Amino acid sequence: MIATKSIQFSYEGIPAFEIPDLEIRGGEALLVLGKSGSGKTTLLNILGGLLAPRKGEILVDGLSLYSLKGQKLDKFRGKNIGIVFQKPHILAPLSVAENIALPHFFSKSEANDKVDHYLNELGIMDKKHAKINTLSEGEAQRVSIARALVNEPKIILADEPTASLDDENARIVVQLLKSQAAKLGAALLIVTHDQRIKSEINQSITLKRKDL
Q1: How far is 81 from 75, CA to CA, in rounded Å?
Q2: Domain range spanning residue 75?
Q3: Do 170 and 203 contact (CB within 8 A), yes or no?
Q4: In the structure, what pLDDT confidence band is assigned to residue 77 with cuts at 50, 70 and 90?
Q5: Over 60: is that where the pLDDT of 108 sits?
Q6: Number of domains making up the chain
Q7: Which pLDDT score is estimated for 111?
Q8: DSSP character for 145?
Q9: Other CB atoms closer than 10 Å to residue 154's CB: what's the count?
Q10: Residue 201 and residue 187: Cα distance in Å, rounded?
């Protein structure tokens, strides 16, 4: 479903990241571990169509991601790639349901009953009309996950999704991501330095930077 070939990336004045070739099929999950500064978030942004690599290629369901430009890339990303950020970038003035429906607005697709479906799937239907500032950290992360899933993407990318959660909520969030990816037949990639969740994902790689 998603594969990388010979990816190279570096910031000016900083040693290059070592990014191995990888492939994740639909329904599979991969955990990407590494110290702070090892390139985990950079890799996630490259795979998510947010940061073009210096060299190399990212294939999403056989399509070369960065062969698309501008609005075509934005539309493809909105339809096919769901991203769960480290801090839930959810909008305080909007309700939970309105936040989850945002990807439909940006991708110009119909919401249908998907918002309610994922509210139910993630156990937060009772928070549908709640304001964001009334949510716990675990509930806010579930809203972020629901928003990433509502367009039913082929790729799910999660950046440190358990960083601010206690042990129980961290386990629950990883299990939710795995179960939803399996139901969608989507490829799941989680980047983290959180060793607590290593036992939850069978496949893992560790990123390093040449000076680390």
Answers
A1: 10
A2: 2-209
A3: no
A4: very high
A5: no
A6: 1
A7: 55
A8: H
A9: 18
A10: 13
Mean pLDDT of the chain: 89
Give SS3 for 165.
Answer: coil
**Which of 127, 151, 160 lies closest to 44, judged by CA?**
160
Distance CA 200, CA 180 (A): 14
The pLDDT tens digits of the residues spanning 143-155 come to 999 999 999 999 9
Assess contact for 124 and 142: CB atoms under 8 A. Answer: yes
Domain with 84 in it: what CATH number? 3.40.50.300
Query: Measured between alpha carbons, how far is 32 from 123 in angstroms, rounded to an integer?
Result: 27
Please tell me which residue, 100 or 112, carries the higher pLDDT value: 100
Q: What is the distance between the alpha carbons of residues 138 and 57, in angstroms, rounded to a whole number? A: 35
Burial 160-183 (b: 16+ CB within 10 A, else e): bbbeebeeebbbbbbebbbebbee
What's the confidence (pLDDT) of residue 153?
A: 94
CA angle 69, 149, 172 (to 5 degrees): 135
pTM for this entry: 0.91
Tokens coding 121: 């799937």
The single residue listed with the structure tokens 């998907």 is 114
